[in-house]
Amino acid sequence: MRIRTIAFKWHVEAPIGAVEAVIRQLGFQLKKQSWERKVGGHVLAIEHRARMSSTKRSYFWLRFYQPASSADKTLVSRALSEWFYAVNGHFVTTVNWFQVAFDTEPIRTVHGYKQSSNSSIWTKVDKDSTCFSVYPLYDYFLFEVRNLDIRNGIRHQLYAKWLDEVEFNIQGNEKPDDQIGFNLVG
Q1: Model-level pTM?
Q2: How far apart are CA 178 and CA 72, in angstroms?
Q3: At residue 85, what are phi and psi to the nearest 5 degrees?
Q4: According to DSSP H, which parts of 26-144 are helical?
Q5: Do residues 63 and 47 touch, judged by C-beta distance below 8 A?
């Protein structure tokens, strides 16, 4: 599984002007449509969602990617931890959506997910109303995590666990531990 991007859709209870000041303090530079910062050869980019935002609430996409290669899911952990810690120090922050664009061999099934009839969309819902989806888009696949009520946040700190699980589910396994086996010698 080659990861193209790891993204989080989030909002804060503040106008864009206040959030922009914090973004600049964190070392992000304004590019065409987003603020960007380099992280070990990767790019951490923040895109303001102006059409969704209001004077009291600002929406954003936070994207992590490697322009010339696959995004390193281990490198993203520290960058995201620093980012969310800093932003939460200034504003009430809610993460509404987690999305990963990835390349893989054609998917026949995703273990533990239900396939929609007449389509290549696989979904499952946890007991806490967290919805997981895997589906093709153009020449890649998307893995998304959101709450059934999109206004509610998700536990974004679990993104690495979710990513590991879906990678193993695509391979037909229930969870990463399914790969462990023992040979008993008698």
Answers
A1: 0.85
A2: 23
A3: -65, -45
A4: 75-88
A5: yes
